[in-house]
Design goal:
By secondary structure, this protein is mainly alpha-helical. It folds into 2 domains: about 80 residues, 2-Layer Sandwich (Double Stranded RNA Binding Domain), CATH 3.30.160; about 80 residues, no CATH class. The strands form 2 sheets. A 3-stranded antiparallel sheet has the order 2-3-4. Strands 1-5 form a two-stranded parallel ribbon. α4 runs parallel beside α6, α6 packs across α7 and α7 packs across α8. The longest helix has 19 residues. The protein starts with a strand and ends in a 7-residue tail after the last helix.
C-alpha cells in the first residue's frame, strides 16, 4: 500500500502515541484457544487490531492478560505498518532523516535492532527508499549512505523484514536476495 502526501505518511502513523494509534483502529477482544487453563477459556484476552486507514490487521493471543496482548498487538501493528505502507518519495531530492543518520555511525552499518523503539521508523524510511530505487540494493545503499553489505545485514537481522524485502523484489520482477 502506498500513501501519498494528501492522506497520511507512514512516519505520521508510526510517530503516534499508542492511544492515538489505537484510536485509528477497530479493537476486538475475544477468547483465544489453546493451552492456558481455565482463565484462558473464560476471559476475552486475545486482541485484534484493524487499522482503519490502511486495512492492516494484527492479533496477539499469546498471554492470558488482555493488557499484555494489546501492547503486543500495538508493537506488531507498528511493524506491519513499517513493512507494508510506503510513502512515495523522489530519490533525486531524498535526504536521509536525522534518525537514519543517528542510527548509522560513520563507516559502520546500522546500529539498531528490532527491539529498539525507533526500529519501525528506520525500517519504514529504508523501505521507502528501497521502493523508490526500484528494489535495487546498491542504489538504495547509496541513497541512505551505507554499503550494500550493511544494508543487507539490516534486512537479514529480522526474518520478517527479509521476507518482505524479497516479496517486494518478486513483485517488481527481480530475483530474491540470498
Amino acid at each position: 500500500m502506498v500513501v501519498t502526501e494528501e492522506n497520511n505518511s507512514l512516519a505520521e502513523f508510526l510517530q503516534l502515541e499508542d492511544d492515538a494509534l489505537v484510536s485509528q483502529c477497530e479493537v476486538d477482544t475475544y477468547r483465544s484457544r489453546g493451552p492456558g487453563g481455565q482463565k484462558r477459556n473464560k476471559t476475552s484476552s486475545a486482541v485484534r487490531l484493524r487499522h482503519r486507514p490502511t486495512g492492516l490487521i494484527v492479533t496477539a493471543t499469546e498471554e492470558r492478560s488482555q493488557h499484555v496482548n494489546k501492547a503486543r498487538a500495538i508493537r506488531r501493528l507498528r511493524k506491519v505498518l513499517a513493512f507494508h505502507v510506503r510513502t512515495e518519495l523522489n530519490v533525486d531530492k531524498y535526504q536521509p532523516s536525522e534518525l537514519l543518520l543517528a542510527c548509522k555511525p560513520r563507516d559502520r552499518g546500522f546500529e539498531i535492532g528490532p527491539r529498539d523503539e525507533r526500529y519501525c521508523l528506520l525500517v519504514g524510511e529504508v523501505l521507502d527508499v528501497f521502493a523508490a530505487c526500484g528494489m535495487r540494493v546498491s542504489e538504495t545503499a547509496g541513497c541512505v549512505g551505507v554499503s550494500t553489505g550493511h544494508l543487507v545485514k539490516l534486512f537479514e537481522k529480522d526474518p520478517k523484514l527479509w521476507e518482505r524485502v524479497n516479496q517486494m523484489r518478486k513483485e517488481a520482477g527481480l530475483k530474491a536476495l540470498r
